[in-house]
Structures are given as structure tokens and as C-alpha cells.
Amino acid sequence: MAAVPYDDRPAEGMADVPDRVGRGLPGGVELYHLRPDGGIVMADRGGSRELGPEREFLRFIDDGQFARYLVGDAATAPERPSNATVKLGVVGPRSAFTPHAHGGEHFVLSLGHAACGLYDADRGRVTEVPLTPGMLIRIPEMMPHSFANRGTGPLTILAANTGYGIDHEDYAITAAEAERRADSTGFASTAGPAAGVPLAGPVAGVPAAGIPAPGAGRTALAATATAAVTDYRALAAALRDIERTQRVHGIAPTTVRERLAARLRRVATALEVRR
Known about the structure:
The protein is built from six helices and 14 strands. It is an alpha+beta fold.
């Protein structure tokens, strides 16, 4: 689903982290103000500034979505580990990510009104979980999902992934990619999981790493064993189910109560953060 272009102009009347706060910080310390309007202000000893996606952010899965790494980087991988990546994300107004599955488990803290569409393998259906500011959701490895911004302004999220950066081929496996892998391996799993490999999403025995990147240092035998417990056709089918749900139902709107709460939250922020 295409994202609405991000508008990084500061909201009228919004209080920012003042320069004097930043200049009083010890060297190397950064203070982030994640504003209720979706803006992000960073302060350090040099002062404060609003972060803009075209300057300090990377593309985040889809055009119009952005991320800034706090821990790890886009090249993080099992072969180049930082244990986890933590990043700020900016989701465009009334937009959703292309459904995907991550090679590692995933934690997302929503600072606005969002929704997470998840494929429920036990019930064979897509479940949508509405999120409000301050809610954090854990998504197991290889569980098909998508994340949407239900609001009309930018949505800031804090996302943590175990072991994978954006550049890794298993960071976000889409339906098209799962279908490509299924066609290249010609395999659709009917067996149970390999020993020690948990069930994840709709696929029995999906490993944490999927197919290794070229030059990753794994043997051909290990790569074959990894592919042999990954049912990419089932994964693709689950992701297509989420895509169909998005097309049919679209992105749910915010409620009257949520919109009122958002206004009150902006007022509270203006009172709490002095200029």
C-alpha cells in the first residue's frame, strides 16, 4: 500500500526540546523527543534540531517509510552481529507496510494510533490488533504481518529486531520473495520441524535465518538443510492473505475518542516541555 509523502515541517505551536537542555548534556549523550504529532527532535551538546527523513533516515521496507538506527545498522546479520537492531521508524499517514515476515523476532512500540495485521496459523485467518500510544507488540520470528498507521499524521515507532538489519535478505521476506524462493528450491514442506527448531507463523520448522546470503560462510549442506525446513509456499500464501485483507478492508480509521485523546496529548506535551 503506497505511503503518503512524509511532511517534516514542525507542527504549529508544538514545544521542542530547547537548545539549552541539549547544551547542558554531557558529551556523547543524545536526548530524543518523540512528539505526539510524529515529529522527532534530537538534542545534544551542540543544541537541538528536528530530524528529517530525507537527511538522517534510511528507507524502511517501502517508499515513504523511514528508519534511523539507534543500535546496529542496516548491515547487521548473523554473520555480522550486534545481537539486535533498534531503530526509530516514521510511518507515513494512512499507510501500511507491505506484508512481510522477519528472520528474527520483532518488537514494535507504537507512539501513535496504529494497527498490526498478523496471520494466525492456529485459526487460519488474519487478525488485526489495534495499537494506541505506548503499546508494544512482540511478533515471533517468521510470523507474517504488516503494520499500518491509522492516523492522518506521521507515526513514530520504536522497532527492535533480533539479529537482522534492513539490508539483510531475511530482514523482511515479502510474498513475492517467498514465492521466488519456493520456485527456486521447488520445495513445499510436508514434514514436521527439524529438531530444536520451533514452529513459527503458518510454517512448520521455519528457521531464524532462512536461506543464507551469498558468501555467508555456511556450507552448501547447511544451506540445503535450512531450506528443507522452510515452507516458502505456505509463507507466501499467508502473506497474500494479509494483502487481500488490506485491499478489502483498507486501513481502519481512528475513533472519535482516539482523536480527542490525541488532541489532549498534544496539549499535555506543550505544557510539559518548555521552550
